[in-house]
Amino acid sequence: LCRYQHIWDIDLRFRPAFLGGIMEATGNKAPGMLPKRNEYMLKDIKRMGKYYQVPIRVTAEHLQRLLVPLSLGAMRFITATDMTQPQFLEPVSREFWVRFWSQVSIYKPNSCSFVAAQAGLSSEQAQKLLEMVSSPAVKNRLRATTDDAVKYGAFGMPAVVAHFNGEQHLIFGCDRMELLASIIGE
Asked: Residue limits of the DSBA-like thioredoxin domain (predicted)?
């Protein structure tokens, strides 16, 4: 979507949501829990990394970490960024993504500070965000956006909700951009 936001006539808005919360609310199981799907996904993700020239290193255990509460701290940091420094939401999200898929921990206390610096935030800005992570405002906001994702029909991530001609369209997965293009007339 980041590639297309300047080509298509779209107003792209990131809405941080907690994958573990979505899976729990929908009763869904991670694709990696299905043996043949897991086997395929591991190969497919590696192929996608090569194709998009992204340093992806993935294992079956790595995929399971997406659902654990440990990733909640990263999602709260992203949510705090969205609430107070929205101009950094995309770069902070991207840095967490690269860090996670390169198998560098996003769970250690210094991960948020490292990500913030990589995304261009000052150490003072990062510190303020870190102080917000455990606040009720951030927790409630993340819970609300996760609940919203479920209400839109999300059962996993990535989930894109396109609002077009008064209708809402849920698109699941990063490999459905041509369907989104068709819906919005691009």
From this structure: 1-184
Q: How far apart are CA 6 and CA 90, in angstroms?
A: 14
Dihedral sign from CA coordinates of 24, 29, 31, 33: positive
**pLDDT tens readout for residues 22-78:** 999 999 987 777 788 888 888 888 898 888 887 887 776 666 665 556 688 899 999
Looking at the chain, the number of H-run helices and the number of E-run strands are 9, 2
Expressed in angstroms, the distance from the first to the final Cα of the chain is: 13
Any domain includes 57: yes
Find the helix packing angle between 136-152 and 19-26, rounded to 10°. 50
Tell me, what CATH number does 94's domain have?
A: 3.40.30.10
9 belongs to a structural domain: no
Q: Which two tokens stand for residue 26?
A: 């929908």
Token pair of 55 as six digits: 């340093």
Overall domain count for the chain: 1
CA distances (Å), origin 49, targets 62, 101, 159: 15, 9, 19
Q: Who contacts 84 (Cβ-Cβ below 8 Å, separation ≥6)?
A: 128, 129, 132
Q: Which domain does 117 fall in, by range?
A: 19-184
Higher pLDDT, 85 or 45: 85
CB 172 within 8 Å of CB 159: yes
